[in-house]
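User: Good morning. I'm curious how zinc ion would be positioned relative to this chain. Could you predict the structure with it bound?
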Amino acid sequence: MGTKIIGIDIGGTTVKGAIYDNGILINKIIQKTSKTNPLDTTMQVIHQLSKNSKDIAAVGIATAGRVNSNTGEILYATPNLKNWAGRNIKRDVEETLGVPTYVINDARAATLAEARVRSVRSLFFLTVGTGLGGGLFIDGKLIDGNLWEAGEVGHTILYPNGRKCNCGKHGCAEQYVSMKVLHRYAKIPLNRRPQLISYFRNKDEKVLLAVDKICSDLAILIDKIFLMIDPELVVIGGGFTELGEGALQILRTKVGIYSSKSLYRPEQVELSVFQNDAGLIGASLFAIRKLEEGA
Ligand SMILES: [Zn+2]
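Assistant: Good morning! Here's the predicted structure, ligand included:
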């Protein structure tokens, strides 16, 4: 059996793919997600990665949406990914490629990656990217939940009757905490991330205010998470991490407003060590685990 694993991370903006050989990254590519058929983009990325590489042992796929990881079926997806809900990605890829394929929600995959590098028994992972996702790791185990929805805090309501969400509800946390929202507050287009980051580092007032606003709302969510689950850590991932320590300090100050009324501490909020690659690494870890289980 080969030792190479392909990890894929499918998001509304990009599809990322990488080959890991015994855990070491040997090739990585990124493509813009097709607006009409994200599976096309995914297959292109997989083919590009596998064409010069024999002995691919498995493919691990992390994707936005709610996923039944036993069957590989997408149970639910917002319109960020077109024609996604109802698809069986595991079957689609296995039929074309003939390699065992395992599918997991992207935030849950990232949770696995974070838990792996930290010596904690429990953590909650929050990805602040194009959207807002989460994953729950308790007593050394990833929690799937009964209907594969555990960790979907992005669609818990932060402001009743608030902004309309693409899930159909109003006031979901994702409409207040995401990089999309941050760019909108800062009045910098979403495709100009480097500009946003450099303005933030140079303490541009408008960008600082935007980050402040996002962190205020994020802190409300983090307080709920600590009081509901009491994890050792809440780890923040996704595009937000590109803002670095400065943003973490702002967030911790906001968290402190609430933590001062409880036992948890702002220092229990940390940034992802993988930045934007946690989903990709988590997808490959998930595939390795499934292979070992003989699934
Ligand atoms: Zn929603």
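Residues 6 and 19 are 5 Å apart (CA to CA). The pocket of zinc ion is lined by residues 155, 165, 167, 169, 172, 174 (CB under 6 Å).
Let me know if you'd like a different ligand tried.
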